[in-house]
Design a protein that fits this description.
Distance between the termini: 22 Å
Largest sheet: 8 strands, mixed
Order of helices and strands: EEEEEEHEEHEHHEHEHEHEHHHEEE
Structural class: alpha/beta
Number of strands: 16
Length: 382
Amino acid sequence: MLLIRNAMLYTMEDGAVPQQGDILMDGGKIRTVGRDLPAQGAEVLDASGLTATPGLIDAHSHVGGFAMEGADLNEITDPVTAHLCAIDAIDIHCDAFKALHTFGITAACFVPGSANVVCGTGFVAKTAGDNTVGDLAVLNPAVMKCALGGNPKGYGKKGKTPMTRMGVADIFRDALRKARSYLEKKEAARDGRGEMPSYDAKCEALIPVLRREIPLKVHCEQFDMLTTIAIAKEFGCDYTIEHGWACNLYVDELVEGGGTVCFGPVGIAEGYGELTGGDVAYVRELDQRGLNVCLITDGPICGPAALLISAGEAVRYGVPHLRALRMVTCNAAKALRVDDRLGTLVPGKDADVVLWSAVPALETSARVRYTIIDGKIIYRDT
């Protein structure tokens, strides 16, 4: 057992306000949150003067998949690689992965792409712990990573389809269309109305998308967001918008569509790739109008420090502080469908806690003093 004593608690529960208190952890879970909790049998960590938040969650990362030679998360031989899995390409022992928890990131969604139209499945995992990536996984598969726009258009340079946005959208629809037909044939065969179709690994991987068990996680900027919304509606899929640059131009459509916007990364120069409209101020209206918004690093495009910096920049542009903190904690957990375990400091949730020297995303002096994952102190700033 571990007892955090006398921290300023930002639990990130709906309606909760920061207050002084304790957190008792046992068996990798939060047992109790309150004041003057009994310490019998527990290791006590005096957090007087420190701020406690849930561990930060990066909802979009490639860290560990670009660590060795080559881009192990980009299988650029085929624009549709739905059957591939990011969990097979992440090196948790590389320096970039091991740095994540030192910046307060206790979980992330690791995704393939974005060179392909349909890139493969991503998974949610803790950022430190046991010795295999499977041990760290919280949810796998968690998402189906896809990409619109300039990245998959790169196939045109090889004389392949797609080379235009029209071609990208057509391939995206065609992959879902084939998967839907495949699923219909399987269901008919089970009901005695035909033969079982030959096994198709790509279609099998897309069935959870069609059943709304996992969302499409779509790299897009500008009006690609409208294409994503239209395709998701056509096939009855859930989705998240990744990057979302220039989202201010499509606020009504995004709010009506209802999918999460994973905005960022912040701080990349305008004109990088197809980046225009990367001002984090644009998330304010989306958040005010009730859309789930989270902030991302797209690591290693931006380093792990960028997640907290993004939240601080959102505050600087007028997003209320607690709303900005939600964008890197409970909002991200909700987008990834792991909010039953992560994102808030409440009894029963995973004991992933970060203790800060000051209030993160509000005070620029805030530094990680302790990172706790599954109730174990993984990092301490000495």
